[in-house]
Write a structure and sequence with these properties.
The protein has 7 helices and 12 strands. It has 2 domains: about 70 residues, Hypothetical PUA domain-like, domain 1 (Ribosomal Protein L25, Chain P, Beta Barrel), CATH 2.40.240.20; about 170 residues, 3-Layer(aba) Sandwich (Alpha/beta knot). The chain has about 240 residues and is an alpha/beta fold. Helix 2 runs parallel beside helix 3 and helix 2 runs parallel beside helix 7. The protein is elongated and about 60 Å long.
Length: about 240
């Protein structure tokens, strides 16, 4: 069934409405009276609805049932990625959303090729949020991930360190694997995953990350691209969690 995210104000009792681009989408789909769609409140609940009537501006629906969303993992996964270049951030956002991430955060580091000013981030963030919303709808998520950008390396690492299971994907790590790190930690409800940009992290940055309390792990002998590493780790962990 077609799926849309809404705000709580758009539902009242057994009635609901959608507007703007979502209503336009319904119009393009030529939905007929009685056809069913799913509305998600972004807080983990789905509403099974029947289409009643609509225009390009607004559609009216009848609420038939309210159910817990099944597309949310039991663990909160947060990605912290050093700014990648070109459109790699969009790829990470889309695929990480499909995999069940809760937060996707970008931050500056010494070897980042991409340099973003405050104005750049103000322009890009709405686009990133829209990508997350579209991916959440398509993958039957119960929530739209938060997409944010840190202005400093230090603030990002401090935030990542607050997770119960904070991971640092370190290309210089020689011993501890992701599998070993998971085996020695159990019962965690929040995970952070820190990965670098195309240039990786400097020695000083890597030491700062470890000193903050993050667990340094290797992802194996192969060199993964900056857009591949966070998705590989997230995939492995969400499969274990499912």
């Amino acid at each position: 069934m077609t799926r849309f995210f809404i705000t709580p104000e758009q539902i009242s009792g057994d009635s609901a409405y959608i507007s703007g681009d979502d209503a336009k989408h319904c119009y393009v789909l030529r939905l007929r009276t009685g056809e069913r769609i799913v509305l998600c409140d972004g807080a983990g609940y789905d509403y099974i609805c029947e289409f009643e009537c609509g225009s390009k501006d607004e559609a009216r629906l009848k609420v038939l049932d309210k159910l817990p969303s099944e597309g949310e993992p039991g663990t909160e996964y947060c990605l912290y990625c050093a700014f990648p270049k070109r459109d790699k951030a969009e790829h990470i956002i889309q695929k990480a959303t499909e995999l069940g991430v809760s937060v996707i955060a970008f931050f500056p580091s010494e070897f980042c090729v991409a340099k973003y000013s405050g104005t750049d981030l103000q322009r890009k963030t709405p686009r990133w949020m829209e990508i997350a919303k579209e991916a959440a709808q398509q993958s039957a998520r119960g929530k739209i991930p938060e997409v944010r950008a840190f202005g400093s390396f230090t603030d990002a690492i401090k935030s990542a360190a607050a997770a119960e299971f904070p991971l640092f994907c370190n290309e210089r790590e020689q011993s501890r694997t992701l599998k070993e790190a998971v085996a020695t930690h159990s019962g965690y409800k929040s995970v952070s995953i820190v990965t670098g940009s195309e240039g990786g992290f400097s020695v000083a940055e890597a030491e700062t990350i470890k000193d903050a309390g993050l667990i340094s792990v290797t992802l194996g002998k192969r060199i993964l691209r900056c857009e591949t590493a966070p998705l590989a780790v997230l995939s492995a962990l969400t499969i274990i969690d499912s």
